[in-house]
Design a protein that fits this description.
Chain lengths: ~110, ~120
């Protein structure tokens, strides 16, 4: 599976959009981009995933660049409850899921 | 989404005893389950992968005789920490993927916090 690079930490003001970047320059053609988050002392929570096209669901939007070497997770209106560690993972659906360090997002009032 | 439940959510035990953690898929058949360990302020580390009815595959550095994994049915996998020691204290998390759910999507349990005294 391709390796990902994420910023260690980010801050965001409550009510504003949170944009979390992820670099995955070695991604292969069949690998998907998955985003999960982990709130303190809980199991990871699925957010969204995509292959080539941008995706949107009730939680977030995923923007994947045309060359697929990077992506951005967008939380449109961040709340205090969105404070968590966000993990960007690139993998084939048939493979296991391995976590990097992720980005610690802190939403501030 | 599909639900994965872990039990117990926390456990305290004495050094030298064994502890069993259960992971259940409540509304889907889990063909594959994964076990992770997470130390404070660190990321999740994959310990092993188990497919229903077969032996688990352990990651390098994970002792298979210490961390016994059983995946006897499509809805249940267990992790037994044998002869636990204080250094085994950690947050253990399972995840599952399987039939009748989005291919490749993993569903995670709530985690089980083990403290060995």
């Amino acid at each position: 599976d391709a390796k990902t690079t994420q910023p260690t930490s980010m801050d965001c003001a409550e009510g504003r959009a949170a944009n979390l970047p992820c670099n995955h320059s070695t991604i292969s053609g069949n690998e998907y981009v998955y985003w999960y988050r982990q709130i303190h002392s809980q199991g990871p929570q699925y957010i969204i995933h995509g292959l080539k096209n941008n995706e949107t669901n009730e939680m977030a939007s995923l923007i994947i660049t045309e060359d697929r070497k990077s992506s951005t997770l967008i939380l449109p209106h961040a709340t205090l409850r969105d404070t968590a560690v966000y993990y960007c993972i690139v993998r084939l659906p048939s493979n296991d899921m391995r976590f990097g360090a992720g980005t610690r997002l802190t939403v501030k009032p | 989404g599909a639900v994965v439940s872990q039990h117990p959510s926390w456990v305290i035990c004495k050094s030298g005893t064994s502890v069993k953690i259960e992971c259940r898929s409540l509304d889907f058949q889990a063909t594959t389950m994964f076990w992770y360990r997470q130390f404070p302020k660190q990321s999740l580390m994959l310990m092993a992968t188990s497919n229903e009815g077969s032996k688990a595959t352990y990651e390098q550095g994970v002792e298979k005789d210490k961390f016994l994994i059983n995946h006897a049915s499509l809805t249940l996998s267990t992790l037994t920490v044998t002869s636990a020691h204080p250094e085994d204290s950690s947050f253990y998390i399972c995840s599952a993927q399987g039939l009748d759910v989005v291919p490749g999507e993993l569903f995670f349990g709530e985690g089980s916090r083990l403290t060995v005294l």
